[in-house]
Protein 1
Amino acid sequence: MPANPLLPANGAATPAAQVLSVSELNRMARELLESALPLMWVGGEISNLVRAASGHVYFTLKDASAQVRCAMWRNRAQLLAFRPENGMRVEARALVTLYEARGDYQLSVEALRPAGIGSLFEAFNRLKAKLAAEGLFDEAGRRALPRYPRALGIVTSPQAAALRDVLVTLRRRAPHLPVVLYPAPVQGADAPARLLEAVRCAGRRAAEDGVDVLLLVRGGGSIEDLWAFNDEALARTLRACPLPVVCGVGHETDFTIADFAADLRAPTPSGAAELASAGWYAARAELAVLEPRLRRAVERRFGELAQRLDRAALRLVHPRERLRRERDTLARLGERLHHATARRLEAADLRATRAGLRLRAAAPRPQALAARVDMLGGRLARAATRLLEARSQRLDALAAHLQHLAPQAVLARGYAIARDKQGRVLRSTAGIPEGAAVSVQLADGRLDTRVIGHGKA
């Protein structure tokens, strides 16, 4: 190890005249650490991971009994082939150093490679894969948040900073919105069961409390601190809750099973409050826009009504003057009615005179038409006589023809009609057995016979 000019060569105490400042002490300690310990590989599990806006990555590397802070600068972090997460077991190629501003001993990480996933992170991934395979995280089952909730339910610890963040956000965005707290611890061995019971209680009392949305919130922490939100029973309870659930656990980079099971994930507790109050907050902005428009509309309406009032005042007259005007109007209308009636009567008389003249002109003259009537009568009598004679002759011919075709006339010429005992006319010998009774109809009577044989015609 090279000698430090500020330290005595024989290892004796620094003289009083050489009192060091804190900055000098920390610089000396950093130089000693960096020169004494070479660049080395250190293995452990990541926790408290923070990705700064500058691109630098800060985290804690730990094992079962110790931990050390680590910093990885942006030019190194952007070369990583994987995304570090809390709970991952990694191997860091790092230089031991000291952060002089705070006097904190830390590792300056040059490279990082996976060394296997930590037990908690591995259990998280197994549970996540199992519930995803069951369809518990399907988008189709997620419910939309109501635009204007009546009240919000919050499941968290009453002492949690997350509760204060949510209340501050709501006070800023929707101060009128009631809040119902369902208290439960957010860390510890009994936290999962208590959180589960709080969610169930919120679901049972939703109608009674008037709650439309449930917020499940907690501040940031390591994977161990947030482990209560990776409980399988809690995830199933969130999915079965009758209320839509917004989960705001940890920071933006923190993910839990509850985030995937909830209807909506918020990056932070404040973000959960913003999502739940988005409708009311937007309504405030819309009202701010509508307020001047409403004011102008009311002012314009008042102006129109004032003008109508002024015009009505101008038309307002004394009742005596109004009655006088009405009498004059009535007199004028009476005169118009009298003249109109007279004109209509004159027109009616004229029409009656003209109709009488047309009626007399159209009256019949019987003497002029008598000869024509006698002539037409004679013609009608002669035509009727000729028609009757023609019809009589035709009738006689049809009667003779009918008599010629009558069955009795046919029988008189020597024909006969044979019938069986049922009275049906026999047209063929087929089907008539010997000995069958047959009735034969002749012109002057009937013969009852019996078949004794069949012969050909």
Protein 2
Amino acid sequence: MVQSPDPERARGVFGITVAAELVGTGVQNLRAYEARGLVEPVRTEGGTRRYSAEDVDRLRRITALLDAGLNLAGIAMVMDLQDENDRLRRAGPG
């Protein structure tokens, strides 16, 4: 997953319940997305998931792709391509 240059957006601050509410989905869905490797929230020393603003954006992209009719396997492929495109754009020409 590509991270933004803004470290504040990458900092895990939201618990799983808050992240689910922000995205408009259920906690179990977030766990399923994590199990599929679609999102990787940071974990506290005690193992609690902490979602960042970047994670919430990514979850919103997942939700939009689900609404467009893709399944989780298709979403994984699309997001991998989007992440690679972002990496290439940041690398610039040459």
Protein 3
Amino acid sequence: MPTINLHLPHWLYWAGLILFPLIGTALAWRSRRHDGPRLPSLPFAYMLLLLAGFVGAHRVYLKNRWWWVFVPLTLAVIIGNGHIRDGRELVSAARADVQAAAVQVRRAETAVQNNARNATQRLETARAQAAEADAKMTAAHVVLDRAEMVTRTLALVIAGLLAADLVLLPFLHRNRRRVEEVTPVVNPYHYVNAEAPSAVETVEAPTNGFTRAIDRLSELVGGFIAWWTVIAVFFYYTEVVCRYLFNSPTTFVHEAMFLMFGMMYLLCGGYGYLIDAHVRVDIVWARMRPRLRILADVLTSVFFFIFAGTLVATSWIYLDTAWEVKEVSFSDWGIQYWPIKGVMLLGSVLLLLQGTSKFVKDVLVLRSGRV
């Protein structure tokens, strides 16, 4: 298999984190407005062909029974790449033996010229070892060349099938749409039990313009950041393909993803607080009456504001320092850290705003006397 050398420019990384969620959200809104049956999409089928066509994902999406043809070929390529790695290790070890044997031969020849004791016997032994090392080197090259030839042939077969599907995909898509337009697919697991009463009756808390704006902002940020999980799937998928199909592991995927997950954690703090997803020690709180719960939240909110305020101040210091020294990562990727520290500041501000919204709503509930 040929090797590939992928490099992710920094601007493309940041553009992807911004544009991909925007495109995904727009497509989701467009899908919700569609009233008819959801038929297969040709652009999505082409995307699957380009990203995971080697396992027949595009044919699985179009429910074509010939998808399985790609699977054994792909598995054979993966196994072949394993043999290639083993063959390279054999060649490397054999090359080291050849070089060591050549050194011994040169030393033995020098000893013969100096009429050293047993020099002739040592020379014969060194030459025999050199001949054996050369034989191992030749055998290792044979193993490596055979593995590369078989794997390259299988890869060309997969490439040929994918090239054919580039042309056939519109016909496969048209046939699938024709079938599903006649017999639309119904999800057998989707049902609504209209007779089941609601387990919990809730009372809508009083709000004002400020709290509604902050809550809506947290919802938008949470929905935006949720699309980053799809980016993570694509990135790790790319790493697996590069590592096991092309023997070319990347140098940026791991760092790009753990930085992204850190930013997700920070930016979703406000949304998590909105939906009450943060961990709380509720041994006593859960046993209180509703009014006492809200009163306890109001009284203990001082600890939240101390934490959130400290987080905002610390994040600002980190951002200022990273900007001043032009901090970058220590890896080969060398991404700038100031945008990440800026996201840390933004996430802490969103968390502080959502906590303020929660505090205002709790006060409004207590003043209204509805609990």
